[in-house]
């Protein structure tokens, strides 16, 4: 795999669009802003999943997502967490991915992914030392919080006053 610059994504609440890291602009079905974060729900043209929901939570440096997979591509995961930097300017939110990801299987376990990518990005100068350290702190904080709440991400968020809601699973 070729290492890439940190992925940047834009969430334009005012125009109900989401611009992915490759520059594709997609219509958003719903945005919901809370004092602590942003919820997004939209269709997807990805071969593995047909719908995507995400919560951006800037103070934790997390983007928690539910991928509504097509049955033949289903994965053993309930949530996928991206570690990064999330900012808001007016009605536009921006995410900068910091390579680390966490897969959550509610009530069972979780798995930290892409540590090698984070370290390679640091060595190649794609991520500064402070951002690299911050990514590690954010990931370990999330791992500890989720594990301490019975491997229930939503329960951890709720314990912090961040009540996340999701659409029912669809096929």
From TrEMBL:
Q: What sequence ranges are listed for the domain DUF402? A: 23-151
Task: Supply the InterPro entries for this chain.
Answer: DUF402, FomD-like_sf, UCP012622
**Highest rank taxon of the organism:** Bacteria
Pfam families recorded: DUF402
Name of the protein this chain belongs to: DUF402 domain-containing protein
Q: Which organism is it from?
A: Rhodococcoides trifolii
Species lineage, top-down?
Answer: Bacteria, Bacillati, Actinomycetota, Actinomycetes, Mycobacteriales
């Amino acid at each position: 795999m070729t290492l890439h610059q940190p992925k940047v994504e834009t969430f334009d609440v005012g125009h109900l669009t989401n611009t992915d890291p490759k520059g594709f602009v997609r219509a958003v079905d719903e945005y919901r802003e809370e004092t602590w974060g942003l919820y997004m729900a939209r269709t997807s043209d990805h071969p593995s999943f047909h719908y995507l929901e995400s919560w951006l939570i800037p103070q934790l440096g997390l983007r928690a997502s539910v991928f509504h997979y097509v049955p033949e591509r289903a994965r053993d995961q309930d949530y996928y967490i991206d570690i990064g930097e999330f900012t808001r300017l007016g009605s536009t939110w921006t995410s900068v991915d910091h390579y680390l990801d966490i897969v959550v299987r509610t009530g069972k376990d979780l798995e930290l992914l892409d540590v090698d990518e984070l370290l390679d990005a640091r060595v190649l100068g794609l991520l500064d030392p402070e951002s690299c350290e911050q990514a590690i702190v954010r990931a370990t904080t999330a791992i500890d919080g989720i594990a301490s709440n019975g491997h229930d991400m939503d329960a951890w968020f709720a314990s912090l006053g961040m009540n996340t809601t999701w659409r029912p699973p669809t096929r």
